[in-house]
Automatic annotation (TrEMBL):
Coiled-coil annotated spans: 8-42
Taxonomy of the source species: Eukaryota, Fungi, Dikarya, Basidiomycota, Agaricomycotina
Classification via CDD domains: Prefoldin_5
Family: Belongs to the prefoldin subunit alpha family.
Signal peptide stretch: none
Identification of the protein by name: Prefoldin subunit 5
């Protein structure tokens, strides 16, 4: 059976324990912030894909266009089928979809990531608030100790 969680006030922790908690929160914040940045990049990538799909139009059939291979590499090509596109669905798999299906696919990806970004942003804000509380209590304890307050020594 799981044991019930015990709540400890940060004011009851000593300076070393507070420093350790602060270090753990900093590591968590760094990890969450990196994850947030990666999600935002993925979201931007899917938005770009959606824009590219929306730029494929029937009137472009048989015209020479620039085909994006990467974000910075485009090659000239002729559009032979303006109703279908190839969609990267991940891990090296590609499927042929209509423009409407591809737009729906990328829109759903953008929305899914948006909800994750929003949730992650809330978590980051809560962790930052916790960090501020820890830092405040830690500063108070250090100040009290340097002013000859209780040090725990005899």
């Amino acid at each position: 059976m799981a044991q019930p969680q015990q709540t400890i006030s940060v004011a009851d922790l000593d300076i070393a324990q507070l420093s350790e908690v602060r270090k753990q929160l900093e590591e968590e914040l760094n990890h969450l912030t990196n994850s947030f940045a990666q999600l935002k990049q993925a979201q931007a990538k899917f938005k770009t894909c959606l824009d590219n799909v929306n730029q494929v139009k029937p009137e472009h059939k048989s015209k020479t266009i620039l085909v994006p291979l990467t974000n910075s590499l485009y090659v000239p090509g002729k559009l032979s089928d303006s109703e279908h596109v190839i969609v990267d669905i991940g891990t090296g798999y590609y499927v042929r979809k209509t423009r409407a299906e591809a737009a729906k696919h990328y829109s759903s990806k953008v929305e899914y990531i948006r909800t994750n970004v929003d949730t992650l942003e809330e978590t980051i804000n809560k962790k930052r608030e916790n960090m501020n509380v820890i830092i405040s209590v830690l500063q108070q304890k250090i100040q009290a100790e340097t002013q000859g307050g209780p040090t725990g020594r005899s």
